[in-house]
Amino acid sequence: MKRQRAYAPLLAVAATLFAAGHASAQTPAAVPAPAAKAPPIAAPAVVRLSPTVQLAGQTLHLNGKGTRYRAVVRVYDIGLYATTKVSSLEQLAAAPGPKRLQLITLRELKGDMLGVAMVQGMQDNAPSGERIKLIPQMERLSRIFGAEPSAAAGTALTIDYVPGKGTAFYLNGEQKGEAVADPSYFIAVARIWLGNKPADATLKDALLGIEAKRAESGGG
After folding, report:
1. Which residues form the signal peptide (predicted)?
2. How far apart are CA 218 and CA 168, in angstroms?
3. Rounded to an integer, what distance in angstroms lies between the CA atom of residue 59 and that of residue 77?
């Protein structure tokens, strides 16, 4: 009995140490706080296609608009402006007054790639009798865009035709190159989207307002 009393304090200390060690083993190590997240990159400012624009002292109305896709990626928005409603390339060519094609990029585009795509579109849609005549202007178009390293998201590409002055290209309001005086040149460029081999058939219908007409009539 005396021996048990002598060991009692030692047993109590051992039990205390065991309990402390067991509790320490059960307590998870402190987890460092996660690093603060970097602030999100601001999205480019949204540039909208206005219902009307002023050009050469006249009011142009948005004939139709749409979005160009590559696979599921949105590349640019585009709108067609004219003084009167048109539903075909021929009607656009016959429409009086100035005309405009307005593109708003939705992602960064390489300037040379944009130029190549536009020249290819002109080649694909030019009538056989016009291709040779358009070669100098296609080369010029390629040089204009080839000189631009890239077009950031939100860049405005404007293609204006003004009677008596011709067709001019603008990037964010800055004219690129000299205007092309030939009145048929604007239509040659417009064929990229409105010709027989357009960049996107659905987009062609949207620019000509055909989708809107179908919706109003309940057509498919």
Report:
1. 1-25
2. 39
3. 21
pLDDT band at 213 (very low <50, low <70, confident <90, very high): low
pLDDT at residue 153, rounded to an integer = 96
Per the structure, how many domains does the chain have?
1
**93 alpha-carbon distance from chain centroid:** 27
Is-contact 158 144, C-beta < 8 A?
A: no
How far is it, in rounded angstroms, from Cα 87 to Cα 213? 10
Concatenating the DSSP letter of every residue in 133-152 gives HHHHHHHHHHHHHHT-SEE-
User: Is 15 within a domain?
Assistant: no
Cα-based angle 73, 48, 104 (whole degrees, multiple of 5): 45
- 162 Cβ partners below 8 Å, 6+ apart? 55, 56, 98, 168, 179
Find the angle CA(49)-CA(212)-CA(198) to the nearest 5 degrees: 75
Q: Which residues contact 95 (CB under 8 A, 6 or more apart)?
A: 82, 83, 84, 86
Residue that is written with structure tokens 């949105």 in the block: 74
Cite the DSSP H helix spans in the chain: 2-26, 89-94, 111-125, 131-146, 184-194, 201-207, 210-217
Q: Which domain holds residue 82?
A: 52-217
Residue 76 sits in a domain of what CATH number? 3.50.70.10
Look up residue 98 and give its DSSP letter: -
Dihedral sign, Cα of residue 173, residue 176, residue 177, residue 180? negative
Percent of the chain with pLDDT over 90: 60
